[in-house]
Amino acid sequence: MFSKYQLCVIAYLAAAIPATSALGCYSRGPTWDQVNVQRGNEGFPVIAKEICGTGGGAGDYPANYEVEGCLAGGDVHANYKIKNNLNAYSALDYSKCIDSVLTEMFACSHGSEQNHVGFFFYLDPNDGGKWYFPPDSERSKADYF
């Protein structure tokens, strides 16, 4: 069997697993396919374009600035957040934003948290109609320059 020492090590390692896998794919909940179907099968590229274009994902980011929002899709919705991880101004190019969002959508069907090109991407399909993802503050980008 296991000694007390081995059990302590196992318990410690088991407790550390969630901390070490904080970034990555979610394993439960609605999928991007469900969001796509509820939005009329417009396709993942159209959803990515909405996040990066009209949703404000691509563009100029002061240090640590973030953009967040929600896409409605019938009985499901998708929350998203894109944050500049750098301690300096950075621009997120539209094509890099699209590539990053599509990479996560195709790799992580239930959503994900991941870093790409100096930015943190949180992309999460959820049950229920549109939900407002409130900003951390009411400051505008101009307040960061």
UniProtKB/TrEMBL annotation:
Keywords: Signal. It comes from the Eukaryota. Residues 1-22 form the signal peptide. It comes from Fusarium pseudoanthophilum. This is Secreted protein.
